[in-house]
Design goal:
The chain has 22 helices and 9 strands. It is mostly helical. The protein is globular, with a radius of gyration of 28 Å.
Length: 609
């Protein structure tokens, strides 16, 4: 890959430290102002690499790399950086906690109003799923950071600050998990309703009669319906409607706590559980955001460090059940049938009859993980890769845009999602802008490449990912205090009027996610090619045989120089034999070099004879 994730992440750290820490004060906010989501994204630009990749560790001063310290020089030295992060994380948690101790999960600053420029105070304070998911990720990062940093701290005052940070982060984490549980929705509808006809039209790629499509889809979702009956905590009351053969349904996360969502009995103090107003129907964007956040709850780091309390473990199991159900549902719908998948019929059409390439990308993201759990072959993963490649072209990421190109709207102003139910608290219905098409596409490409077992398919997908990264690189802010952060869409799309001096922390954080994924992919072992293994084995067998012949001919008794040479040859053979299964290309190269040296010995003997 051409991305060079380490260098790019360090450059983002340098730019973030330069912009956000001035005169001993942390400066909150960016292009969208300061709110619970944007400020969490701002912190995650630093915390995400530091808590997911040991090469960027900050909480262990003796293990922090020199280039990381140089990038964060504006924040302090190896001790000063983690101390400052403890203080800034604590400040974030205090900023977004009410006086009564209730965590705040509002999206003010990101909200827009349909048909009006003004968002009411009540609307601005509405909790939203995006804030829940960001809080899950940031809280887990903060708790893990505090746990490790405490082990190297001796000052009592600093240890007390770290303990207070962990307590506050744990409280916010529990509240965010409760919010996610209360935002899960199941939307059931008749097959002959507008939503039912739209879903049937989406999945019916072969022109079958509607009755046959409904029956097949009903059978294909039987395990999902059975799993939904096992949902107990904050369970939506839909079991009776799901058993009706003529009913279809969708499941996932709404934009916030759904109307009439029951309270969750929690054994920890998290403040007030506010009543919900959101439509009891899943949204693709918020469903994917919830899946990404919940995945952190059962990650390897979370398990090893024991970041969850006993009560949080209980809530995490309930969320994991919803995680499995949602992934399986959308994967079944997206890959329904035996011919062309509905996912391949771009753009994706939602049941409220909205169409967008962005929706296709969201469904792709929810489909891939379930395909892996089912151990789907690379041929099926390759079909998803082709969808991603087509989306890159349609979105004018790897193709040249033209004037008044409708595809440019995917990037600026982005896809606007209507938040049904929010209109009851203000002058109009809230809109949620989604402008992260390009980084989301790159993340999906990198994630899919890491799952592929075929070197050819993986290499082709990584070449496509490089093209998307080239596009993202050109969208950096090139001057001013926010240089080297994102996003300046006008650099790529000259027909866009907006030019910004402040960074979009949402967009920058999405790019950081891509770079972390690229670093993880690069740091993993190379793919094992069976053809290359067989080739390397053949080379090794010949080399070992010729080496034995040299020993038989008495080459090891010819003198000290010859014995030393043969020992080096033998070491190369042993090294090649040890790594043949994991690095067959390297083993073949070593065997080739040994064969060349043995041939030189044979040629020299012939000359002497």
């Amino acid at each position: 890959m051409r991305m060079q994730p380490r260098q790019q992440l360090l450059e983002i750290w340098r730019a973030t430290a330069r912009l956000c820490y001035r005169d001993g004060t942390w400066v909150w906010g960016g292009r969208d102002g300061s709110n619970s989501i944007s400020d969490a994204e701002q912190l995650l630009c630093l915390m995400l690499p530091a808590t997911t990749d040991p090469r960027f560790v900050l909480e262990r001063p003796d293990a922090t790399s020199d280039d990381a310290l140089r990038a964060l020089a504006d924040l302090g030295d190896s001790i000063g950086v983690p101390r400052l992060l403890v203080r800034v994380l604590s400040e974030y948690l205090q900023r977004y906690t009410d006086l009564d101790g209730t965590p705040v999960f509002s999206g003010a600053g990101y909200f827009h109003v349909d048909g009006s420029d003004k968002v009411s105070a009540e609307q601005a304070g509405m909790d939203i799923v995006d804030s829940y998911t960001m809080s899950v990720r940031l809280s887990l990062a903060a708790i893990g950071f505090a746990r490790v940093f405490r082990t190297v701290v001796t000052r009592a005052q600093l240890r007390a600050e770290i303990d207070e940070l962990e307590e506050q982060a744990s409280r916010r984490l529990t509240a965010a998990m409760v919010g996610l549980l209360r935002s899960f929705a199941v939307y059931a509808f008749e097959a002959d309703s507008p939503a039912g006809r739209t879903l049937i039209r989406t999945v019916n790629q072969t022109g079958l009669p509607d009755r046959m499509v409904v029956e097949s889809l009903w059978q294909g979702l039987a395990d999902v319906r059975a799993a939904l009956r096992g949902v107990r905590i904050a369970a939506p009351d839909v079991n009776d409607t799901l058993d009706h053969p003529g009913r279809l349904f969708e499941c996932g996360w709404s934009w916030g706590v759904i109307r009439d969502a029951p309270m969750v009995d929690v054994g920890e103090e998290i403040g007030v559980q506010r009543p919900g107003v959101a439509e009891a129907a899943p949204y693709l964007y918020f469903s994917l955001a919830a899946l990404n956040g919940i995945e952190e709850l059962f990650s390897e780091r979370t398990r090893i460090l024991g970041l969850l309390t006993e009560e949080q473990e209980r809530l995490a199991r309930a969320l994991q059940l919803r995680w499995d159900i949602t992934q399986r549902y959308w994967s079944t719908v997206a890959s329904f049938g035996t011919a062309r998948w509905p996912l391949e019929d771009i753009p994706w059409r939602t049941t409220d009859n909205q169409e967008s390439d962005y929706f296709s990308l969201l469904v792709t993201a929810m489909t891939v993980q379930d395909l892996i759990q089912q151990r789907s072959p690379d041929t099926e993963l390759g079909r998803v890769a082709r969808v991603l490649d087509e989306l890159a072209g349609r979105a004018r990421i790897v193709r040249r845009p033209f004037e008044r190109d409708p595809a440019v709207a995917l990037h600026s102003p982005g896809v606007l999602i209507s938040l049904v139910g929010s209109e009851e608290a203000g002058p109009g219905r809230l809109l949620w802008p989604c402008t992260d098409f390009s980084p989301l596409l790159l993340k999906r490409m990198l994630g899919l490449a890491g799952l592929m077992r075929d070197p050819g398919l993986r290499g082709e997908l990584l070449r496509q990912a490089d093209e998307v990264w080239d596009h993202l690189s050109r969208r950096r802010i090139s001057d001013g205090p926010a240089r080297n952060l994102w996003d300046q869409a006008v650099n790529v799309y000259p027909f866009v009027d907006d030019r910004h001096d402040l960074p979009s922390w949402r967009y920058t954080e999405r790019v950081v996610e891509c770079l972390v994924a690229a670093a993880r992919l690069t740091g993993g072992p190379p793919l094992r090619s069976e053809r290359l293994v067989a080739y390397g084995e053949d080379l090794l067998l010949e080399a070992e045989h010729l080496f034995s012949q040299e020993l038989l001919n008495g080459a090891d008794t010819a003198g000290p120089a010859m014995r030393q040479h043969l020992q080096a040859v033998q070491a190369g053979l042993e090294r090649a034999r040890r790594i043949i299964d994991t690095r067959p290309g390297t083993a073949a190269a070593l065997a080739t070099r040994v064969l060349q040296e043995l041939d030189q010995l044979a040629a020299a003997r012939q000359d002497v004879e």
